[in-house]
Structures are given as C-alpha cells and as structure tokens.
From TrEMBL:
GO terms for biological process: base-excision repair. The lineage of its organism: Eukaryota, Fungi, Dikarya, Ascomycota, Saccharomycotina. Residues 325-335 have a biased composition (Basic residues). Its cofactor is Zn(2+). Belongs to the AP endonuclease 2 family. This is Apurinic-apyrimidinic endonuclease 1. PANTHER family: APURINIC-APYRIMIDINIC ENDONUCLEASE, ENDONUCLEASE IV ENDODEOXYRIBONUCLEASE IV. Residues 30-288 form the Xylose isomerase-like TIM barrel domain. It comes from Zygosaccharomyces bailii (strain CLIB 213 / ATCC 58445 / CBS 680 / BCRC 21525 / NBRC 1098 / NCYC 1416 / NRRL Y-2227).
C-alpha cells in the first residue's frame, strides 16, 4: 500500500506536475499513487512540435482511470502547454506554427474531457509590446472559436522586458480583448510572482498582492496556482523554482495558501525541482499538514521552516550574490547611459549655439 494516501479531508486540490511517460493515461495513476487531489502533465512531448495522435484505446483508458481514481478532468487536471508556443511572436510564420501546436493541444484536451489548459503567454520579442498583446488575444479568440469548452489559463511570468505577463496589467490587457470570457483564466505561479517583484513573504505583502490581483484582473479569472519556492530573491526576474521552504519564500507563504479560501476548488500544482514523484508526494503531504496549522507562530512550523531554510542556504546565498552583481552592473550601465545622454545633449547644444 502506498504511503501517499490521497486525502479525503483536505479542502484544497494539492498536486503536482506528473510524468505521462508510456501513455497519457499513466499520468492519472501516477498522480493518484502520490496522493494528488489535482495534477498537471504535458499532453505531448515538450521538446517536439509534432507528436503522434492518441489512440482511441488510450483515450478510453485515460477516462477510465479518471473515473476509477475519482478525478474530474473538467476541474482537477491542468495540462501544461509547450514552452515554445509563442502566439505573440511578431514573425507571422512562427506565430502560426505556435498556433497550430496550441490547437493540437486544445484538441487533445477535448478528446480527454479536460476543461483547463495552462499556457505561458509568450514574448513580444522585438515587436511593439501592445501590438503583440493584441495579436496574442486575436489568436486566443480564434482558438476559442475553433474549440468547444477548454478554458485557456494564462500564467504570470518572472521576467521583464518583452516577456508577457511579468506584470498583472499585461494579463488584464489580453483578457479585456477576449470575446468569450468564460474561456479564459489565469494561473498564478508563486515563484514567478515573487521573482517579478511582487512580495508574498509576510501576511501584509501576501494580502497586498492578492488585492492587486483582485483590483487588476479579478478573482473570477483565477483558475489555478503553481506552488513553487524561489531560488532567486525578490525582483530578480529569474525563473528558478525551488523546493518548498528551501528558497526565499519560506514555508509561511504556503501555510497562508493552505488557509486561503479563494484557492479552494482550484488545482494547486507543484512544479518544484523534485528528482522523483516521491518527492512530490512528500510535498503534497506537507501542504496538507500546513492546512492543519492555524497560527504562523506554531513551534512545529518554525522548526520545519528552519530545517528547510538550512538545507537551501547555500543556494540562496549563491543566487543573492549573482543578483547583487547584476544590480551593480545595471546601476553602472544606467549611469553610463545617463552620462552619454548628457554628453550628447551638450554636444547638440554647442552645435545649436554655433548656428
């Protein structure tokens, strides 16, 4: 008997991104065997544009496994789109290729009866950012019309610059352009949120972020959460997932999540760097344990947090040093750019004075 017995008392759908090796139906039993109440997987190889279609037998086996393991594919499963799908690409040919892969993914969801689909919103690259946001929305509207029921769930991102979704306003802009708003949602990734500069660590910071989310996007669009600690410090713009409690977020954030009524009923998916499914099973059980702790001052919580913080100390120090170096270089570059601007301005002024 598995030591990761699936909880029947938790109010939350804690789970993990699970392997579907050997057939998509295996993702269901893999999730069940480590005690997940929700889970994610890739619908096809994340390293290939084109993958073989599902056989009718595999589709039927997937549905049978969901029924036997008591997963509702409409609400409990959050497949992850391929990372290289970029519907905002200013290169028309590449954007179309990404769209074809998206449509294939959505079709696979509907074959399996899956109701949610997670997508990185992409990058505007060297294009005009607002124009590429509009292009992204256009492709999403087209995809929604070509499919029947899958909700496309856009994920917030860790980076800056041309990367879409590093701020909540990007996601708001796209959602406003979606014609059928019942078919669009948002997945908040805790690591990405923190790395993008939205603090979550204290109760005050946590509530401030979710108030910003509510004011900018609205809770009605919140469809899932990715649960990851962060190897990199606040505002580092580095997408570096860490095991729960070992990064800069610490365990208290996840205890607050495990008591947040807004998150009940949503897939809450681990994407931490675990070498085996068993590691995810341990983290699912830890999240369910955090659900039983009502106080941030609980001695057992402090003890566990310290244990995990000690384990991740070296990694955090390394990333803090790298971040400090990056900030220093950035300050020098800004100063140099500013000096160049002044020099150019004075030069221009001299020419004007001469005339």
């Amino acid at each position: 008997m598995s030591k990761f017995v699936r909880s029947t008392t938790s109010r939350y759908k804690f789970g993990a991104h699970i392997s579907a090796a050997g057939g998509i139906s295996n993702s269901v039993t893999n999730a069940y065997n480590i005690g997940c109440n929700g889970f994610a997987m890739f619908l096809k190889s994340p390293r290939k544009w084109i993958s073989p279609a599902y056989t009718p037998e595999e589709i039927e086996k997937f549905k049978e496994n969901c029924q036997q393991c008591n997963y509702n594919p409409l609400t409990d499963i959050l497949p992850h789109g391929q990372y290289f799908i970029n519907l905002a690409n200013p290169d028309e040919e590449k954007a179309q290729k990404a769209y074809d892969s998206l449509i294939d993914d959505l079709g696979r969801c509907e074959q399996l009866g899956i109701g949610l689909y997670n997508l990185h919103p992409g990058s505007s690259l060297k294009g005009d950012h607002e124009a590429q946001l509009k292009q992204l929305a256009q492709y999403l509207n087209k995809a929604i019309k070509e499919t029947k029921f899958v909700k496309i769930v856009l994920e917030n991102m860790a980076g800056t610059g041309s990367l879409i979704g590093s701020n909540l306003e990007d996601l708001k802009f796209v959602i406003d352009l979606i014609e059928d708003k019942t078919r669009i949602g948002v997945c908040v990734d805790t690591c990405h949120t923190f790395a993008a500069g939205y603090d979550l660590v204290t109760r005050e910071a946590y509530e401030k972020f979710w108030q910003q989310f509510s004011d900018t996007i609205g809770y009605k669009y919140l469809s899932a959460v990715h649960l990851n600690d962060s190897k990199a410090p606040l505002g580092a713009n580095r997408d570096l997932h860490e095991k729960l409690g070992e990064g800069f977020l610490g365990l208290e954030v996840f205890r607050m999540i495990a008591h947040d009524e807004h998150l009940q009923g949503l897939p809450l998916i681990l994407e931490t760097p675990q070498p085996t499914n068993e590691g995810y099973g341990e983290e699912v059980k830890m999240l369910e344990w955090l659900e039983t702790l009502s106080s941030p001052d609980d001695k057992k919580l402090a003890q566990k947090n310290q244990e995990l913080q000690d384990r991740g100390e070296k990694s955090r120090k390394d990333q803090q040093t790298k971040f400090a170096v990056k900030q220093k270089k950035g300050t020098k570059r800004k100063k140099s750019d500013s000096e160049n601007d002044i020099t150019a301005h004075l030069s221009k002024q001299k020419r004007v004075n001469k005339t």
